Amino acid sequence: MAIVDMKKLTLVAYGKDKHALLKTLEKTGVVEVQRSELIENTFNKENLDRRDEITSATLRLQFVFDFLKTESRTAVLIKKSEAKAEKHKTPIAPEDVLNVTPKKKKFINPTPRIGFEKFYEIEGREDEIMSKVSRLEEISRRYADIKAETNKLCATIDGLSVYSDVAVRMSAFCDTAHTSVVLGVIDSSKTSVLEKIRSEYPVYIETMGGGKMLPVAVVALKSDADKVFEALNVADFVKTSYNFDVTASEKIAELEQDIKTLNREKQSLLEESLSFEDDIPDFKQLYDYYTVENARLVASDGLALTKTSFVLEGWFPKDEEEKVVGAIKNTTDAVVIETRDPVAGDSVPTLTKNNKIVAPYENITNMYSPPSYRDVDPNPVVAFFYFIIFGIMMGDAVYGLILMLGGFLGYFLLKPPPGKGRILLIIGMGGLSTFIWGVVFGGWLAFDVSGTFLEKLIWFKPIDETNPNTALYMLGLSLAVGVVQINVSLAMKGYLLVKRDKDVIGLFNEVISWFSILIGIILLALNMLLKLADGFKIAGIVFMVVGVLLMLVLGGRGKKGIKKIFGGFSQLYGGVNFFSDILSYSRLFGLGLSTAVIGMVVNEICKVIINILTFNGISVLGVIVAIPIFAVGHVFNIAINTLGTYIHDARLQFIEFFGRFFEGGGHVFKPLGSNTKYNYIEK
Predict the structure, then answer these.
(1) 676 contacts 291 by C-beta, under 8 angstroms
(2) How confident is the model at residue 654 (pLDDT cuts 50, 70, 90)?
(3) How buried is 116 (Cβ within 10 angstroms: 0-12 exposed, 13-18 middle, 19+ buried)?
(4) Does the predicted model carry a pTM greater than 0.90?
């Protein structure tokens, strides 16, 4: 369990072998290609054009994924509507019947695993697959056109509906040699205006229909037309813009038929689009292929080139040297290979190697920052303390069982590729810790387990009405965890000072001094609490004095003048931060109590409901009402406290633990060909 030793790879080969060698390195799965330090801002125009093509193609493929997902949901809704109509014996129009059944989606979809050779077979099918993509794009565009046409037709129908009682073709309302003839609508509340116009002008006015908006036909002499229409405008008269050679009702029927035709076409397009669901694996494989190819082209742009050759630089795990060198030589004999260990100034990627228990917690560390190549791997320690702290904060055995079931079962069903799905394992491990601490805290959905065999397993209860001191026990446990973890961080600091930095003086100044002071404090506390021999008191004072002297004498090293004198005092003052960091672990106490308190509140609410709804000694109704409240309340408690625990546990690792020794700033080792999204390529 450590940071893997890496080696630098440098190879020189002919340009004609570049593609084959990059593909070989992809196949090994253990080489990260680094941009050559011998070049600046170079690019291959051919590569750039191809990368533009790939970008366009991946965007088109992503569009197709989203489109097919939407179509599938639409098809499901249609099928449900068909089933409902059949159940209720409701007639279904032929154009509304979907002749294709959408594929049932699996609740769990594990990431497909595919061999390297099989993965690259998609290369020869690129044109075939993209032609299907083009057809789906055409379907999508036609969908949009149909939607626009349908909306336009519906708007026209809405506009014509007010004229449905007009039994005259719309085009008949046109001017003659001496008259102006118009058709329009008027608010039925303003018909008095029409009577006024009739009384003032020789006009013919006829209203048709009986709705709020009345169709009105007006015939006026051309000499009076302007005045008549001006008077009509007072009543918000709106002249129709329609000029069809049929009546409004006939036109509506025609348009409704057009909409049915469009809907039939839409159904046909839906059925055709669903026929491409079987091609989704190919679409996703091609997407991943493009992603890998793009990474290869980026790597290619980072190579130092001559007219006939190129220089490639990269990194690989030291124990994979035979595999890497052998694969390169099997590809071409015309190559010069050099491997070496890292030297000062190298930007070395970080690869951590941990067992199955520790590996998931690498995600926690990487959230803060991946360790640098010069760092010590903190993940084993992070895994231990994260596990312990998670359980203390949750502290309920039943909650732990639920989290274990959700985390481990989810991971088992999903079967994610290596390095993926780790959050599920973290939750599962957190559930195990929660179960253990729940047992020793007596936390079983906040119920009292006194008088049962479970009581014998209890160490102490964080909340115990019979013993108010238990809250202090919980606080003491929380701070004790903090003391242990912070001292472990100091020990790791000491390890780096000696192992990496060869700084023995720094070890005594920054680590031994604090250990000495802490031992002194512990000895004095034991002497006071347990009334031990005076020798413990004297030893405690000696240790504290030695620690303080080490700080005062060594704290100003490397400084001059007054800074050298006060350097030690400054470090001694830093002890405030030491003890404040320990106090930060009181959040274990706070979150642990909050989980228990919320659980108790939920239970008490349910008890009250049951008591209120108990009649004649029968509490069936109360139980029925209380069960969903009980379930929702505890689910909420699990959810909110799992989130809080996940965040606060990580915070303790990042600030209190990492702050003393961890540099970070590294970048995770990413071998060529490993950046797929939908498939896992097995090397």
Answers:
(1) yes
(2) very high
(3) middle
(4) no
